[in-house]
Write a structure and sequence with these properties.
With 185 residues, this protein is an all-alpha fold. 66% of the residues lie in helices and 0% in strands. It has nine helices and no strands.
């Protein structure tokens, strides 16, 4: 049985495959890192990244050069949100708490190197507790080192919204860490 012309898989030419490998494959660690932080699960992140790479390859004709990393991370982000919506829709809801989102107050900072590992664990747990839209901007900015403009392009948000989410995410992290440090003492 022959498939209709539009459903037949296309075999990429060698030059397209090489361009894809040069433009997109080097960013696999960043793609996995973002997916891992958004899904909070290694296996789910692997599935999301695999799907994102399939999508990236399928739509590679639409990539006209430029920043392959930002282009790929945009696809990873969309793939993550689609996956989260289908598998964990409740995680996409964020409550607004004036006390949590208030930008006033003192920040608690760990002061000893001896507690470094404990603090890393606390930070990881606090990051994983952030709502997904806060977690993504923190990961893209602090772990991937992207600019506000790049994050805005990836997340399809105004730069001001990116800055606001980063401020709120940082504040929430500070409050969560301060609370945990005070309850453990």
């Amino acid at each position: 049985m022959m498939l209709p012309r539009c459903e037949r898989p296309t075999v990429p030419d060698e030059s397209t495959l090489r361009r894809f490998e040069r433009a997109v494959l080097p960013h696999l660690p960043a793609a996995y890192n973002m997916a891992r932080w958004l899904t909070r699960n290694d296996h789910d992140a692997e599935d999301v990244v695999q799907e994102a790479y399939v999508r990236a390859f399928r739509f590679f004709d639409g990539f006209h050069g430029g920043d392959g990393r930002a282009w790929l991370l945009t696809i990873v982000r969309h793939t993550c949100y689609t996956w989260l919506q289908h598998n964990r829709g409740h995680e996409l809801m964020t409550e607004f708490d004036e006390e949590i989102h208030n930008l006033d107050g003192e920040a608690a900072n760990p002061e000893t190197i001896l507690l470094h590992r404990t603090n890393q664990l606390l930070l990881r747990q606090a990051l994983e507790e952030l709502p997904v839209e806060y977690r993504e901007v923190i990961i893209l900015r602090e772990l991937e080192g992207l600019s506000y403009k790049e994050i805005a392009a990836i997340a399809d948000l105004p730069v001001g919204t990116v800055m606001s989410r980063l401020a709120r995410a940082r504040k929430r992290l500070q409050q969560t860490l301060a609370h945990r440090l005070h309850t453990e003492v």
